[in-house]
Amino acid sequence: MIYLFDNKEELIAAIAKNEIVENLQVWIANGLINASCSFKYQKNYKNAVYFGAKDIDDESIFWLYKIDNSILENKIISLEGTHVFFDDLKGYGFIKDIRPKNKEAGDAANQILDGTRWSLGVNTATRLNSANYYYENRLTAWWDFITKWGVEFKPRMTFSGGKIVDRRIDIADKFYFDYGKIYSYGDNLISVIAESNNTNIKTAYVGMGRGSYKDGKRKITFEDIEWSTANGDPVNKPLGQEYVELPSATAMYGYSDGEPRIGIVDINTDNKEVLLQKTYEHLLANARPLVQFKTSVVDTSTTSPFETVGVVRNDIGIRYKTRVLSLKRDFLNPKVREIEFGDKIVTSYSERQAKVIKRVEEVKNSADDLNKVLINSIYNDKAYNYQLEDGNEYGLPSGYYSFDKPINENPTKVIFIGAGKLAIANDKNPDGSWNFRTFINGDRVLADTLQTQNVMIDGSGVTVNNGALTINDAYGKTLITSQGLKALYQTQSSGPYSGYQLVGYFNDGMNSTPRTAQMRVEVPEGFVIESARMTMVIGPAIRNGTQTFYPKQLKLTKVSGGYQFLDYPTVGEYYVLTDGATVEDLSNELMGGQWNPSDPNSQMVEETVDIKNHLMPGTNQFELESASNQTAENIGVVRFYTTLIGYLKGGVDG
């Protein structure tokens, strides 16, 4: 069941399952939670501001979403929304000045949530940290909080008597859900989203633990601990050997003479047995390329973001544990779930959006406020510094490095100083290498964003390069550039068959007549086109529910001039025809010849072409028709979609 609520969160409709077409949720671990649904027309749907549903695994949990988009088409209503937790924190009051210092995560979370409708729920987080939030919206502070304190969170709402009666946020250093699921690398049902390179792989590790006062606090090793597979240990580690090795990984990623690639890791323990076990676990995570997976599963058991799953890498002879990164659930078919799991390599749209929102809010601060934030972060954020020489084990250029985490704990920020240069990165590329975006040398400063404390404004106005002001929107998209106002035009064709037109030969029982599909593309005067693409989506015809065929030998033309009139047949459909026009055949240039769409599963087929060089200001008409002489079994439907990106130049009249 889907529930609709008005702007007061008063229940206005409860939609039964038999009226629901779709009900999906995408939940990113420690990120945004979005949902989409479709259902048969409801007369009061326009009053809906929120929609929600009970959880399919635990009906005591309720999900409520702020509606972002709504569409009514063919008496079907489609809604898209974001969980209300994020909407509430974005604008429900604001933080004036809070300064949690050396506080546990729960204390900091309570300060951020104070004054909202949300309260802290189950809290097992233990880490201490400090922060300063000054005239900031709560959502920006929340994203910063979960990063600084290293916590994970889950919203939890209770719905009773037609009302939302409780809103809680559960936090933990790490949520633990392990239902014993195992996935095999190379399985046909599992796809690899991204895989990093082999630059930083280690096939053996020396573990260094805490020393004790009686031995002068020198670090301990596991040199005098023995492991044997014959005794049930995962690998062999002889007495006197200071490192633990994965021979299968060395065989694949080690040196050419068979020697392992050895790293050193610090483990916070003074127990040698624990030190060996933890070092081995670290080895499992670093003796392979990082891989992010996706799979669709049919599963009756609970699946959760943060869930721990096993991965079998028979190609390198290891098994390791990893976590679910995101979960897509079908509330109409609870058994079907799509999950992403593994090493976090690819950043999702919602995660990028969260970073952009935080960055925009930071830029809104005055220069003085920004200075305070930066100075505060200097005192509160820990730095881990290294002087790396040529040929270091991390494959990095020699120089001085300062990371936000120890180098062997996957840091996310770095400053490099060396050879007269300074480089800064705040994230990594999909292959695991640093994404350096800010550079300083003796000649220049190169950065994505530069903010100064003083701006020169005099009687002549503001002087900028190219005589234009560049403005970006809240999502980092450029609106105004030196070339003019950047604009996006998207259009689609219309037709009598749910927006589609006939193409090919239409048989009305008496005659077989050709049908030409048409698409008009309007280009505004003064619009400079950067790119222009047209996608043609073909649907097949199906006879008696079994026989499927597509239109044949389709050619794409551009029609200029001439006149149009209405074809008024005795039998059949009315149609607009063009006569006396100049027709340019674009098939060879844009499609490599005439197009014969087909699909073995009788699905929609599409073709996208670049029409930039064939557009002029005003109306541009394109047509698609069959050049085949075959009149039988040569019919289908088509819809056109065009996307134009470019710039509106200044000084346009009208």
Strand content: 35-45%
**Rg for CA atoms:** 31 Å
**Shape from CA axes?**
globular
Low-confidence stretches: 345-353, 359-368, 452-463
Specify the helix fraction band.
10-25%
CATH topology of one domain: Jelly Rolls
Largest sheet: 13 strands, mixed
The total of beta strands comes to 44
Q: Any idea what the CATH architecture of one domain is?
A: Sandwich
Q: Figure out the total of helices.
A: 8
CATH class of one domain: Mainly Beta
Distance between the termini: 51 Å
Pairing-aware structural class of the strands and helices?
mainly beta
Rounded average pLDDT:
81
Give a concise summary:
The chain has eight helices and 44 strands. Helices cover 13% and strands 43% of the residues.
Descriptive tags:
654 residues; mainly beta; Phage tail proteins - horseshoe like beta roll fold; 13-stranded mixed beta sheet; 9-stranded antiparallel beta sheet; 8 helices; 44 strands; 13% helix; 43% strand
Question: Could you characterize the architecture of this molecule?
Answer:
The protein has 654 residues and is mainly beta. Among the domains are: 177-196 and 290-346, Baseplate protein-like domain - beta roll fold (Phage tail proteins - horseshoe like beta roll fold); 204-286, no CATH class; 382-454, no CATH class; 486-648, Jelly Rolls (Sandwich). It is 13% helix and 43% strand. The chain contains eight helices and 44 strands. Strands 1, 2, 3, 4, 5, 6, 7, 15, 16, 20, 21, 22 and 23 form a 13-stranded mixed sheet that branches. A hairpin with a 2-residue loop joins strand 6 and strand 7. Helix 2 (105-113) packs antiparallel against helix 3 (138-148) and helix 3 packs across helix 6. Residues 345-353, 359-368 and 452-463 have low confidence and may be disordered.
